[in-house]
């Protein structure tokens, strides 16, 4: 489970709560890492002969590598035990394992983080159960894997190596223990959470959410990803923004070529400083704090060429200070531009919060905030709120739960 901050968070201990039992080692011992085709085929046979759901996890090297590929895949199933699979010597092709995993339910924690990199190896689920999402829908206050295991199973997972560089080889034994424990009790956690959701009348809601995650596909690339550069808000001139764009794109090319996380190639702060300072020569650029470092001095001509390209652009080619919007304007402007829309949003938000409190479901899981804003800014002309929600990707349980409340909110300020 890579770079999941909730996985590392500590669970607050109630004074009257029994101490959780530390989970320190896999119950069957640490298995040998699968790294060749023969071992992969034996793993496939073992998992095909197993029974019940399959616990699945993957470790990436976020923050270290440019790619989001899987550097370790962990599986566990009753009758098959635990498998730790290294995709790297297998050229990230685990498709020979796919038939054995097709059909049974996969159990993952924060599935949307791992499904894309698993799909790159040729592994996709037929159905899934997401323990993090289940915890959210059940109204549990902390839904990291560690807190959920402690609260639901009375076991404690040690803080580990989730944010480590999993591209490192060989992988240390304590890292492998950590990885194996991530799937050790995932199926047991699934069963407890499913029972809790059934008691609350939310199990069908959860299954709809899990299916939406399973079928979501890869995230769509952003139109202008460079605008996510940290500190961009400090710059308001189009020419400076053009420099940020040019340096960001140059960094991205280099990071992809070297398979290094972009922030390790050049930090965002250096890009912003160069754009704000407008160095007129390679020497001026090399005098800036980050650029004067030994690693960056070797790249001075590369960075300056990108910067110079931006400074020579025609005015018509400069980026807009404010990005083109594909939806409603920022909410802060609604009161001036459309007071009725602002009133609709206030009423609709209050209605969603009330429903969330009634059912102990976080508002962000009741309805995507962007969909709510779009609905309030441009209500359906025919008044069919349910159809508008459906078109926006809301699930049937959300539509059934929220439509009456949103109809009232919209009609009151139309």
Automatic annotation (TrEMBL):
Domain HRDC intervals: 237-317
SUPFAM superfamilies: HRDC-like (SSF47819), Ribonuclease H-like (SSF53098)
Highest taxon, organism lineage: Bacteria
Pfam families per the UniProt record, alphabetical: DNA_pol_A_exo1, DNA_pol_A_exoN, HRDC
Gene3D superfamilies in alphabetical order: HRDC domain, Ribonuclease H-like superfamily/Ribonuclease H
Location of the region described as Disordered in the Swiss-Prot/TrEMBL record: 1-20
Basic and acidic residues biased stretches: 1-13
The protein, known as: Ribonuclease D
């Amino acid at each position: 489970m890579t770079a999941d901050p909730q996985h590392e968070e500590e669970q607050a201990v109630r004074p009257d709560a029994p101490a959780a039992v530390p989970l320190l080692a896999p119950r069957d011992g640490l298995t040998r890492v699968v790294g060749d085709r023969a071992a992969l085929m034996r793993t496939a046979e073992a998992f095909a002969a197993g029974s019940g759901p399959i616990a699945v996890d993957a470790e990436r090297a976020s923050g270290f590598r440019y790619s989001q590929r899987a550097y370790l895949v962990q599986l566990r199933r009753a009758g098959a035990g635990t498998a730790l699979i290294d995709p790297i010597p297998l050229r990230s092709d685990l498709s020979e394992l796919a038939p054995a995993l097709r059909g049974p339910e996969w159990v993952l924690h924060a599935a949307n983080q791992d499904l894309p990199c698993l799909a790159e190896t040729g592994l996709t689920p037929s159905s899934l159960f997401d323990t993090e999402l289940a915890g959210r829908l059940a109204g549990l206050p902390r839904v990291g894997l560690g807190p959920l295991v402690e609260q639901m199973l009375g076991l404690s997972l040690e803080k580990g190596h989730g944010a480590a560089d999993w591209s490192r080889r060989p992988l240390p034994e304590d890292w492998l223990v950590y990885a194996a424990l991530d799937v050790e009790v995932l199926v047991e956690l699934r069963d407890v959470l499913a029972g809790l959701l059934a008691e609350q009348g939310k199990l069908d809601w959860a299954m709809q959410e899990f299916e939406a995650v399973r079928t979501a596909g890869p995230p769509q690339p952003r139109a202008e990803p460079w605008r996510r550069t940290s500190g961009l808000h400090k710059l308001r001139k189009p020419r400076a923004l053009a420099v940020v764009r040019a340096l960001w794109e140059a960094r991205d090319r280099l990071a992809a070529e070297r398979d290094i996380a972009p922030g390790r190639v050049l930090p965002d702060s250096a890009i912003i400083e160069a754009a704000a300072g407008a160095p007129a020569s390679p020497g001026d650029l090399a005098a800036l704090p980050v650029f004067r470092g030994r690693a960056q001095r070797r790249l001075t001509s590369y960075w300056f060429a990108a910067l110079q390209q931006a400074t020579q652009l025609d005015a018509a080619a400069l980026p807009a200070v404010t990005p083109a919007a594909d939806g409603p304007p920022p909410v802060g402007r609604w009161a001036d531009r459309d007071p009725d829309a602002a009133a609709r949003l206030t009423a609709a938000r209050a209605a969603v919060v009330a429903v969330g409190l009634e059912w102990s479901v976080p508002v962000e899981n009741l309805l995507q905030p962007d969909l709510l804003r779009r609905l309030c800014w441009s209500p359906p002309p025919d008044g069919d709120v349910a159809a508008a929600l459906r078109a926006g990707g809301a699930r049937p349980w959300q539509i059934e739960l929220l439509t009456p409340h949103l109809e009232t909110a919209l009609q009151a300020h139309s």
